[in-house]
Amino acid sequence: MTEALLDPLAQDETGIAELASESIVILDPQGRIGYWNPAAERLFGWPAQAVRGSDIASLSPADDDTRIWSQLLQEGAWEGRIRRRTRNGGIRPAEVRRHVRYDKAGTPRNVVEYARPAPDARPGEMAEGPVPDRLMAASWEIDVTPAAEILARIARCSGRADQARLGDLHRSLVETARIVEVNERTARLVGGNRGRALMAGQSVAAFWPVASRTILAELIVDALDTGEGRSRRSLASDGILRDPLVTVWRAGADRPGRLFITVNGAADDDRSYPFLRASEARYRKLVHYMPVALWQVDASHMGKIYAELRSRGVTDFAHYLDDHPALVELAATSVPVTDVNRSAIELIGGADVQDLIRPVGYLFAESPDSLRRVMIGRFSGRKNYSELMKIRTLDGRVLDVRFSVTYPEPLLELDTTIFSLEDVTERLRMETQLRQLQADFSHAARISTLGELTSSIAHEVNQPLAAIMTNAETSLRWLAREEPDIGKVAQLTARIAASARRADDIVRRIRGMAIKQAPEPVPLALNEVVQESLLFVHHEIETQAIRVTTAYARGLPPVVGDRIQVQQVIVNLLINAVQAVEGLDEAEREILIATATNAAGAVVLTLRDRGPGIAPDHLDRIFDGFFTTKAQGMGIGLAICQSIVAAHGGTVSASNHPGGGAEFRVALPPARPVA
Amino acid sequence: MPTVAIVDDDEAVREALGDLLMVSGFACRCFESAADFLDARETRHFDCLVTDIRMPGMSGIDLIERLRDDGGALPVVVLSSVLDETTRAHALALGARAWLAKPVTDERLLGALSAAIGNAGPDARR
To answer: pLDDT (tens digit, 9 = 90+) per residue, A348-367?
Structure first.
């Protein structure tokens, strides 16, 4: 390192010196500070910006340096002990080595000073201990040249009582002032994730906490006005620093419009920065390797727009976006992604981070409305928001993802919004497949149920067909007579039409059960569905002289479900009940049906027969697939009933009624009223 | 004019059969149930019975059995949509003259009726 520093042509010497643990200061032959490395910042407390351009002698308590300086220039090197003022008013003894570097002509070019804390520092020499890293000032160099006009207006305003106007001017001063450079600590404290380099050139207001902007503006004005060129003020703790002390002073005459700001104060979290850095490194590593795809975005600009809209009285943001769709477009093109993790790169099919670090619009290309909803969520002050949406990957695939956003806390305008995306394409595919299987299975069960009803169905359809055929042939006979009886024919034709309609109704009902179709959830009146289901077993009930007693509750809330599937459940239970009472004495052949709501608000159908009931050791297994006590049955009826009811968010249970017979209860959740 | 009794629980079927038989030269009485028919038979003479099988209350098979037990001279034609071969064989074994499946053409029905009445035993003319 020493060699590099001594090479007058080395361009990156300061780059290397930045990393040194030893304090390194480069001075010009007059003793003015040109470079001041981070170790020097730590040792003496002064941030580089604050001391650059100053005479090193101004940091010495006595005229030590003046004396040493002439000796140094004569001899080309000097080594010894010095004392130096620290930023917080103390004196720091240090052991230094200084070397003069010469140009080709042999004239002194500059002086390099290496310093380390004196190991034997006496307590008296140490007004305060070394500045811990966490107490290191956050420093800024700013440029107020662009705000010359504003400063002039502030000057004209001063002394007048127009506080509101002055307040406005102060705010615009902070907004117009540009950041030239900040140190690492400033970037860490307020830079979000942007880092020092990205802060340079930005408005001071983009990073300076809102609450103390007026104070900063006043300090700037004071520093520019006073002869001393420096002003200082304590601030209220702001959630970042405890008891911060802000000092502003103007740079030398060679740099007009430039000011230095230092902010002292312990971080509220008073673990030391090395600890924080390690913790942050662990956190970053954790985030980086997390199996969830994460995007960090900087929506601070939109946050300001929202604040502005709110202050203008906008409350119905959805409506506002309808009128101003360009705002969604603005968010898509202007909210930058600032960081992503490895899973995000994999998910989106990018080659590296840079593919993803651009405005967020690419995430919403397939689902533009999602971005709109994300914005509405933020505006309405939600902490987070989540939905299923589609994204298009960089290699052109379309994925189903669970998109979640965590909005920033409204503490500061500096904010970080986190998006997480989980690929659910496969899960959705499996779910679809499962639904398909369930639909196939319940369809198969319906066909099997219809199979049990075949002879009834044949009978039911044949009755109207028989009537139609006979009536038609009778009509022909009437017409074939010498004097056709048109009146009789008209009567028969009307009967034919009525029977045809009846046959059509029956076929329609059976076709509903027989065809395979995707379940279609609609609001259903359960009483109505029970009545429809009874039609399927009407013939069985009639021919076996079964008494059906119904007690329909009035004013039941609707349930949401697929009409055919709910019918299927009830028909199945009815067939079981019919079979249970088959062969009993006529007085015992009774099925009782009741509908009601239960305490939990569910709509409940109770179906009881007066048959022999369910054997106690079968009660637990009755809904298992392929469990049957019937010689002809496959044992899927009740299993299907249960899976259908469960898919509708309900429950089905079986018990033996104390008065005899089996009792089945189907409870379905009521439809939610439309908000 | 031969008198035919029709037993069917379906009103549309009863009406259609009644009209057909009348226009074809039969006298005809329709009954909604087997029990109603048996009541009427106490006081009336019938030359033939056309009955359905599946009905609430007494079924067609029960009715044929009952008629056989009573002497079995009334010719019976079954008109049903029951497809079950066992039931069909049972009905024929009990003495039913014909088993016709619904829906039936007028020719087949009238043919079966004529055949049944023509072959009627002594009971038919009592």
So the answer is: 998 888 889 899 999 999 99
User: Best mutation site among A454, A457, A461, A463 for testing chain B: the one with the most B CBs within 10 Å?
Assistant: A463
| SS3 assignment, position B84 | coil
How far apart are the CA of B54 and the nearest CA of chain A, in angstroms? 7
Contact yes or no for A33/A27 (Cβ under 8 A): yes
> Does residue A547 belong to the interface with chain B, where contact is any CB pair within 8 Å?
no
Least confident window among A105-109, A420-424, A587-591, A626-630: A626-630
Write down the pLDDT at residue A143: 93
Here the tokens at position A588 are 């015992």
B106 and A470 within 8 Å at the Cβ level: the answer is yes
Chain B residues inside the 8 Å CB shell of A471: 16, 19-20
Residue A12: which pLDDT band, with cuts at 50, 70 and 90?
low
- Residue A5: the pLDDT is 37
Q: How confident is the model at residue A138 (pLDDT cuts 50, 70, 90)?
A: confident
* Rounded CA separation A65/A84 (Å): 9
Distance CA A295, CA A210 (A): 26
Which H or E element spans position A597? strand A590-597
In the three-class reduction of DSSP (H, G, I as helix; E, B as strand; rest coil), residue A633 is classed as coil
**Minimum-distance CB partner of B12 among A458, A467, A543:** A467
Identify from B6, B9, B15 which residue to disrupt to test chain A contact, counting A C-beta atoms within 10 A and taking the largest count. B15
Asked whether the beta carbons of residue A470 and residue B16 sit closer than 8 angstroms, the reply is yes
Provide the token pair at A69.
């300086």
Class of residue B123 by CB neighbours under 10 A (exposed 0-12, middle 13-18, buried 19+): middle
Question: Phi and psi at residue A226, in whole multiples of 5°?
Answer: -70, 155
> Whole-angstrom Cα distance, residue A605 to residue A265?
70
Residue of B nearest to A541 (CA): B56
How many residues are listed for chain B in this entry?
126
- Beta bridge partners, A646, equal none
Give tens-digit pLDDT for A407-433: 876 544 456 788 999 899 888 888 888
The reply to whether residue B56 touches residue A459, judged by beta carbons under 8 angstroms, is no
> According to DSSP H, which parts of A339-409 are helical?
342-348, 368-379
Collapsing DSSP to helix, strand or coil, B119 comes out as coil
